[in-house]
Amino acid sequence: MKVNNNNNNNPKFKIMSTLQSKRFIMRKSLIGQNQIIEVTFKSGVVAKYNHDEVYEVMKDKLNSMNCWEKYKSYTSSASMPVITRSLLLTE
What we know:
- By secondary structure, this protein is an alpha+beta fold.
- The protein has helices at residues 51-63, 66-71; strands spanning 2-5, 14-16, 19-21, 24-27, 36-40, 46-50, 73-76.
- Helices cover 21% and strands 31% of the residues.
- The strands form 3 sheets. Strands 3-5-6 form a 3-stranded mixed beta sheet. It has a two-stranded antiparallel ribbon with strand order 1-2. Strands 4-7 form a two-stranded antiparallel sheet.
């Protein structure tokens, strides 16, 4: 959901509200949106990440996955992929 646009319609600077989820998600439709996602896993662990930063690290793996081609998304209900854990946001 777009909340504010501070820089003359430049999509790079659109401010997005935080998307709440119960699973780690990567979606083709969110690429380039600078979306912040906060996940609360079943274990109670909360993780917050920038979709675009995680996509840059995962894009080679995602492009080789059937789910990415067929459903245009990848999800994990258990945890963040190990390769992305260094990109977690802290407040």
